[in-house]
Amino acid sequence: RHRQAVFEGSLPVDLDGGKPMDMRQAELLYHGARVPELARDRMEYDRSSRHAVVLRRNRFFSLDILDSNNKPRSEADILADLRAITKQADTEANRPVPAVSVLTGSERDRWAVLRKQLLSSSVVNKEAISRVDNAIYILCLDVRIRIIIIRIMVYILPNHVFFSPNIARSAFIR
Fold it and tell me: What is the model's pTM?
């Protein structure tokens, strides 16, 4: 709902000391990717995407958040998909996969070189990285850090940015 309000221009203006803030920056919360390049990153935005990327146990899943009319899917449908993603990742946990996501924490120039190698090594890699770059947002459901994510969502972000409290509670806490 927050994303929809941002892009429809119906998001209430935040005030700072009684003065209205510039709300154009709210659009930068969605559909953006910080792409590493040598010496300087660049930002890319794709407002046509309708999916989020969900990370769980070093696996990446694409989850449609918006329907074909760019309206939010129901909370029940999203929650069911999140549960299915969690179950699949947990079932496959004994099959190790490369921890590609940790590369993003590398020094920028190193990550830029490694990313280029991944992109050029196969069509599958290129398509997968494109899905990540074009996502509305990334949601990490890794077991060890999910409580930290909830705290970040609750204390830093407006509580309506990603999901309603019902989904956050159901998705993160078993």
Answer: 0.71
